[in-house]
Amino acid sequence: MAKPTDLVQGTLDLLILKTIAVEPKHGWAIAKRIQQVSRDALQVQQGSLYPALHRLEQQAWIKAEWRPAETGRMAKFYSLTRSGRKQMEKELANWVRLSAAINVVVQEV
Amino acid sequence: MRWLDKVRLRFRSLFRRPKIDVELEAELRFHLDQLVEENMASGMPPEEAHRAARRVIGGVAQWEEECRDMRRVNFVEDLAQDLRYTLRSLAKSPGFTVVVVATLALGIGANTAIFTVVHGVLLRPLDYPKPDQLMYLTAESPATAGAQYPLSAPEYLEFRQMNRSFATVGAYSTGGAAYTTGEVNLTAGDRPLRVRSISVDAQLLKALRIQPQHGRLFSDEETTRWTGTLPPPVAILSHELWRTAFGGQPLVGRTVEIEGRPHEIAGVMPPGADVMDNHTQIWLPLWIHPNGVQARGFHSLYIVARLKDGVNLDAARTELNAFVENWGERAGAKGHVPTNRPLRAADHTLQLRALQDATVGNATRPIWVLQAAVGFVLLIVCANLANLVMARAGSRRREFVLRTALGARRGRLLRQSVTESAVMSGAGGVLGLWLAGVVVRAIIRAYPASVPRMSELTVDLPILLVGFVLSAGTAVLFGLVSLPRGRTSSVAAALKEGAKCAGGAWRHHARRGLLAAQVAFAVMLVVGAGLLARTVYNLTKVDAGFERSRLVTFSMTLPMASSDPDTRAQAYQRVLDGIRAVPGVTGAAAMSGLPPNRNLEGIDTAIEHYTSGDGRPSEIVDYYQFVMGDYFGTMGIPIVAGRGFERSGYASQGKSAIVNETLAKRIWKGLNPIGRRVRPPGGVFGATGDGWHTVVGVAKDVRQRGVERPAGTELYFSLDQHGVSPPTMNVVMRTTMPPAALSGTIERVVREVDAAVPIVRLRDMDSVFAESIRRPRLLAQLLGAFAGLAMLLAAIGTYGVLSYMVTERRREIGVRVALGATPSRVIAQFMKQGLQVTALGAAIGLAGALAVNRLIASLLFGVHPADTATIASVIAVVLAVSAAASWVPAWRASRVDPNVVLRNE
């Protein structure tokens, strides 16, 4: 298996926001979900995930609450705030534009 | 309201810290447990699963820290932590802390104190509305070697009429036209006071835009348009005199006695009101005597003028220069008008300057010199502390490396260093400001009138700002140098080597470079201080032209209103007779001007059979000296040709005069002056006085206006011959007794003549001389203090660097001693190190001193800026100090016991 690609700088925020957009998740679930959806292509290092979560929370884009996880143990669940949703839309649009542009360039050459 | 949420979150992060930490830990533990579970689910045994999970996660502490960083309040928390840590670590090395803080306090204190002077004297605008519009007009001529002197009344009136640049032009006088000597007797209650006076016209007060605190100012009718034969009897008190002498009682409209005449108090000035740093206590009306309006040769008025809005100094100067082109034609006068023809001896021109520059005058350069000197001291302080802190950083390298290994980032370490230096700089700054206040107050107390505007000095906001900037600047500097330059890649190596390898070539050179710089700056300061010390010494040794030892002098003024010229002369004769009768007094005389602190007079004097350079039959004479009694004998002034004044037989011989050598040379150019005749202008002294006077003798030159200035031209007249006297005279007596022992007797003698007249400034001639050189002495003392401080710091620096070098190289020394090096060789080795750096620094410092000493050339007297003797002795002193500072560590190096050192390693 090829080594999982390092996340493109600045895309981690988008991935996190997108992942919790559907329903609140705790950190472990967010990491797992990203790995699963990308079919192991993207692996989020714990060392970057939690600082990112705290940063997003501090920006008031996501909020956290403690509630029981599937196993019954208490876990910290993150969910999007209203401004977080707006931020996600913005970053999504940015990403689409950027990746499209990169695609064009890459295919052209 | 996202920002509101953010604020709430920041507060929570800052103040709910324990709760957040617990949450963070729980969150991360949850993650870890999930990982372990997953591993077990894939079939690992529990222990293996735990190990694998931990491996994946790595340092939990590090993430926690990163998560905290994301909360963005670490700054405050770290600061508190840094402060706690700093205080602990500084308390652990009190010696280091005390040296750093004390050095900083001295550096910052000296700088703040001198900047207080720079700001208060040079930079702060004058206390008048729109002060930059105020200009000062004086006369200047080659005959007076660039000295500024007053204008004559006709020139003032003509200028006032002709100019278009000024909104208001006013005049003041402290002598001559004011009929005072800048001081008057004031009777407040039963006690006669001698107070400093100024005579101003209404226009001057208008130009300055002073508003009275109580009452009113003078009107035009009381000044310019006054037609009486004596000045109008009104006066304005300064706020300070009103408070001290009259207790701040309502006084306007009341009557006081000034010079024996009743005067009405018209008003009281606001606090601090003054002109040209005159320290005015009482303001009198200036009016121009009807005879004076035409007297072009009689210069006694200083002019202050306010520019019209929108006119600048250059425009006003251009206009003034245009007037000077044809002043005589405009004014309808032939002789003695301002002119800018190719300058000849008798010509004078007019100089326009900003009032602020004129007020500060020649104090500007010494003050900037002092500021530069303390700037050097601060640089030395910085270099010294940089070395000290660097040495400490070397020994703390292990600590820093360890912290890096434990995960501290470089920025975090830098912050810790900057915090430490900020704490020390802050302490040094606070102490320094306190020190500055003490020093400024001490200077003001010791030298109240040496520097203009000095009494107004305060440590105010701009000064505090400068002190703060100095502290903050030094803090950042030390923080930077104290950070070890080790890289994290070499952690293992650094830990192993420990404190031993603190150096490295860079550090070694930096340390010596900083030391050389300290020595260089110190040498520059010591050379400057040496030159000024020589200057003061030379000034005290100047031959002023008379025997200054065993002379006692005082001054007194007989009120003009209650006396006329001939009764005054009789009164002074009685005073002199009384003093001559005092046991221990061998001679007494009186004279109008007290050398060597007189003002330039510049009186146009007719000379028989003479044509001046510009074709006039007269010449400007710098000083008139009216004497009573045996002036030359009492003062010990040699008569080099002819004879002195004789007490008897005036009538038969006609009126006589005595000239000084300079005047004889300038006017008669080597011909015999005896028997030639001079004629002073009318009205100069008493009621009579004009008419031809025959020169009967030539006296040796006496320094009149400061001992450092060459003598000007001087004419002596004997008041005994004329039987008149000006109101104020200086009495001088030759005696072996100190002034204090004489004061009772003198008071009694004067009281018998006139009980209402106070004795002023009773002192010996040595004090008069000391006063005349007080400013160079103040400069030399301050510069000497700074140079001493610089030298001390450089010595401490040398000692510190060498001590450090010895500690660093103990092992090497041990090996050398084990191999047979004698103690004296070890001493020589280290002393050589110290002296080499000193020699380098001294060479650089000398080059610097030679380059900048031109700037203080104008402050020196009798010594060349590159004086070899001074420079040689400075080098000797610096080398001696450096040798002493190097010897102690070198000696310690020689005592290294190889057994101990080599075993310890």
Query: Roughly what is the average pLDDT of chain B, rounded to an integer?
Result: 83
Distance from first to last alpha carbon of chain B: 66 Å
- Classify the beta-strand content of chain B into a percent band: 15-25%
State the helical fraction of chain A: 55-70%
What is the SS-derived class of chain A? alpha+beta
Structural class of chain B: alpha+beta
**Largest sheet features of chain B:** 12 strands, mixed
**CATH structural class of chain A:** Mainly Alpha
Strand order of the largest sheet of chain A: 1-3-2
What is the number of beta strands of chain A? 3
CATH 2nd-level architecture of chain A: Orthogonal Bundle
What is the 3D form of chain A?
globular
CA distance, first residue to last residue of chain A: 28 Å
Concise summary:
The complex is a heterodimer of chains A (109) and B (905). By secondary structure, chain A is of the alpha+beta class.
What would you note in describing this structure?
The complex is a heterodimer of chains A (109) and B (905). Chain A has helices at residues 11-22, 27-37, 46-58, 82-108; strands at residues 25-26, 62-68, 74-80. Chain A has a single domain (11-108), classed as Winged helix-like DNA-binding domain superfamily/Winged helix DNA-binding domain (Arc Repressor Mutant, subunit A, Orthogonal Bundle), CATH 1.10.10. Chain A is globular, with a radius of gyration of 15 Å. In chain A, strand 2 (62-68) and strand 3 (74-80) form a beta hairpin. In chain A, helix 1 packs across helix 4. Chain A is of the alpha+beta class and 109 residues long. Chain A has a 3-stranded antiparallel beta sheet with strand order 1-3-2. With 905 residues, chain B is of the alpha+beta class. Chain B has 5 domains: 2-72, no CATH class; 73-129 and 364-502, no CATH class; 142-347, no CATH class; 503-544 and 770-905, no CATH class; 559-756, no CATH class. In chain B, a hairpin with a 2-residue loop joins strand 5 (183-188) and strand 6 (191-200). Mean pLDDT of chain B is 83; it is low at 498-502. The chains are: A alpha+beta (109), B alpha+beta (905).
